[in-house]
Amino acid sequence: MLGAFAKLARFACISLSLAAAPAIAQTGVADFYRGKTVRVLIGFGPGGSSAFYAEILARYMSRHLPGSPNFVAQHMPGAGGLTVANYIQQRSPRDGTEFAITSRTAAFEPQRGNKNAAFDPLKFNWIGNANVENSTCISWHTSPVKKMEDVFVHDFIVGGTGADTLAIAMPKTLNRLMGTKFKLVTGYPISTDILLAIERGELNGFCGLGWTFLKLRKAEWLADKKVNVLFQMAMEKHPDLPDVPLIQEIAKNSDDRQIIELLLAPQEMGRPFFAPPDVPADRVKALREAFAKTLADPDYLRDAEKSGIEVQYTSGEAVHDLLTKAYAASPAAVKRSIELLQE
Q1: Is the dihedral of CA 216, 219, 221, 222 positive or negative?
Q2: pLDDT at residue 126 above 70?
Q3: Superfamily (CATH) of domain 33-132+270-342
Q4: Under CATH, what is the fold of the domain 135-266?
Q5: CA angle at residue 218 from 214 to 221, to 5 degrees?
Q6: In Å, how far from its chain's centre is CA 109?
Q7: Where are the chain's structural domains?
Q8: pLDDT, tens digit, 9 for 90 and up, residues 206-253
Q9: Residue 178 Cα distances to 56, 137, 164, 245, 247, angstroms
Q10: Cβ(230)–Cβ(137) under 8 Å?
Q11: Is the dihedral of CA 308, 304, 159, 195 positive or negative?
C-alpha cells in the first residue's frame, strides 16, 4: 500500500512539474525581455511596403511578447535587401533582441550562387510571414505594351531596386527563356521611386508590384486606366485577377515552367521576418507566438488597412519548410536558373 502511495505521489509530482514547465519558461522569457528594446530591422529605406509592415508590427508586438519590451523599427537598406540579411547572419546578437524583414527573394540568393549573399537562410530562425505576395507586371498607359504578347514585339523599360530582386530577375529570365524585350534599369532605392519614374516617363512599367499595393495605394491608376496589368507572378491567380495570366502559363515547356516556378517560390513568403541563428529556443517560440498574435490584433489590422497593406499570416515553421523544399529542387533546374540570371 505504501509503495503504491509513493508511486502515486511521485506521478503527481511529475505531472505538476510538467504542467509548471511552460509557465516557468514563459516567466524566464518575460524576465529576459523586461526593460529591453527589440530592434526590427528593415532591409530597405523609408516609405516602401516593407517599412509599413515592420513599423506597424513594432507598434503593437510589445503587448504580445512576455516582458513587454520596447520595440523600434530601424532601416538598414542596401543590395536589394541582402545587407540586412548579411548583418543578421554575421553580427546581430543571438539573444532575440533583433530580427529583420527583407525582400522575399533574398533567402533564395545563396542557392542562386550570389556571392553577396553571405548567409544561410536555413539557419535563420524564421519568425513568420505577413503576406503571400501576388506580384504583377504593369505597363503605363502611354506604352505600346498593352498586354503580355506585346512584350515580344516592343522594347519595354522596367525598373528595380536591385539586380537580384524579382522585378529584375524575372524580366531577365523571360528575355532569355522566351525572347521578350524587357530593358532593365536598377538602383532605385524603394518601389515608390520606381512608380514616380513611371509617371515621369523614365520607365514604361514595373514587373514586381504587389497587387495589394496597386489596388489599395494606387487605386486611381486602375480607376483612370493609367496602367495595364500584363501578367501575374505568383503560384496561383489572385481572386481579383481571374483573367490576367500567370507568367508560368505561357512557358514553352515543362523545363521552362519549373525554372519560372523556382523563381516564384519567394512569392509565398512575401513579407518574411527572421531572427539570427542560435537564438535560445524559448525566445524563438515566444517571438513566433507574439508575431502570430500581433497579426491577429484588431488594432494592428486596423492600422494595416489604413496603410494599404494586406495581411496574410504564415508561421515561421511554414516559412522554414518552404525554404527547405526550395533548396531541395533539382540541381539541373537550379543550375539553369542561375545561368539565366548570370548570362
Answers
A1: positive
A2: yes
A3: Bordetella uptake gene, domain 1 (3.40.190.150)
A4: D-Maltodextrin-Binding Protein; domain 2 (3.40.190)
A5: 105
A6: 13
A7: 33-132+270-342, 135-266
A8: 999 989 889 888 999 999 999 999 999 988 899 899 999 999 998 888
A9: 40, 16, 20, 16, 11
A10: yes
A11: positive
**What is the secondary structure of 67-100 as a DSSP string?**
T--EEEEEE---GGGHHHHHHHHHTS-TTSSEEE
pLDDT classification of 70: cutoffs 50, 70, 90: very high
Give the torsion through C-alpha atoms of 238, 241, 247, 249, to 10 deg: 90
Do 33-132+270-342 and 135-266 come out as alike in CATH topology?
yes
User: In this structure, what C-alpha cell is assigned to residue 282?
Assistant: 524559448
Q: For 100-124, how does the pLDDT look when each residue is reduced to its tens digit (9 = 90+)? A: 999 988 999 999 888 999 999 999 9
Residue 188: closest CA among 45, 41, 343: 45
CB 135 within 8 A of CB 234: yes
Phi first, then psi: give them for residue 39, nearest 5 degrees. -95, 130
Residue 343 pLDDT level (bands cut at 50, 70, 90): low
